[in-house]
Amino acid sequence: MDCRAALGKIEAKADGLLPREAEAELAAHLAGCPACAAEDASISATGPVLRALTAIRAMGKAPALDAMWTRVRAGIEESREARRRPSWVARWAWIPAAVALAVLALLFYPAGTDRSPFHPSTFDVAVEDVESEVATVALVDKGEDLPRVIWIIEDAKT
Amino acid sequence: MNGREDGGVPDDALIRTTLAGDDGAFGELVERYKGRAFAVAVGIVGDGDDALDVVQDSFIKAYYKLKEFRFGSNFYTWFYRLLVNQAIDRWRKSARSAEVPFDESWLSGDASPTGAFAYPRTPEDLARDRELGDALQRAVDSLPEYHRAVIVLREVDGMAYDEIAKVLGCSVGTVMSRLHYARGKLKEALKAHREG
User: Fold this and answer.
1) CB-based burial label for A95 (10 Å; 0-12, 13-18, 19+)
2) Do B34 and A68 touch (CB under 8 A)?
3) Would you say the ipTM is above 0.85?
């Protein structure tokens, strides 16, 4: 076996993929070739040294690693809570949406009629107390043949 | 490893139990793989604290993605895909290309050598040779991220080529090529150290 062939087999040997016969042949070459032997020593050492380096790091973090399930469980619970809890935006987003809806309703009501939508003075609007026991107040448009309720405000306290 | 080698409950069974609502079963999976996961993560990100965060985040992600797991495949291959991606993301975000200090704290007795996974044969020798540890870490840090992942999965975790290919979503040929490149870099670092 020449040096070129030997260098091609050193990595396979390090991975344990070299057949026994080829390994014996390589060993014979390495015994008589210091350059290839040095190459083999360096390649063969990468795995053990890398594992040793990792092991040292792991030893330094052993207590934290022991508590990994506690950390993971806490993280799972936190994520679960976050998924259950509506976000701040979601919690208050209905307010501007409701205001916008109310404004639009007042501006464009009644859409599709001959009334000008931007002149609420043409509305024949009256406020009526339609539920005396719970003091429900209704904003009613009496401009049509039949009165139509525009808005109802309920307040059980008054 | 699928949980049968040590007489434990198979991974598939633990996953089914977890999906049925028993989080304790997932805890067993965490206990089973946390050591290996940490070794892979620290090999990629370099820093121990970052590696702990990566392992934690990967397990949490795996918990919520468990419904997507295909029974019959290996849990650890599936999990390692999450882990390696998480570690690479972490590495990119932290931009921690700076040198990571070699940790000698355990030599002073600050940490117990009884860790959570099978330790290599000579960490003591390496701990006494700070320069070699630093040289190797610099060489690892200089590797492109996927080359680093390949060498760590192969040399630290002992994964086969085809398993690494599955984890990284590439061909076996690509794995072999990256491994050859990475080994070459580490070999140079070791040689340079030896030659002084």
Assistant:
1) exposed
2) yes
3) no
Give, in degrees to the nearest 5, the angle at Cα A154 between A148 and A158.
130
Q: Give the distance from residue B71's alpha carbon to the nearest chain A alpha carbon, in angstroms.
A: 22
pTM of the full predicted structure?
0.69
Set of chain A residues whose Cβ sits within 8 Å of the Cβ of B114 = 62
pLDDT at B82: 95
Q: What is the pLDDT at residue B196?
A: 66
Residue A122 DSSP symbol: G
Mark the ranges of chain B whose per-residue pLDDT is less than 50: 1, 4-5, 97-121
Q: Which residues contact B164 (CB under 8 A, 6 or more apart)?
A: B150, B153, B154, B175
β-partners of residue A148 are: A141
Digit-coded pLDDT (tens) for A101-136: 888 888 876 655 555 555 555 556 565 555 555 556
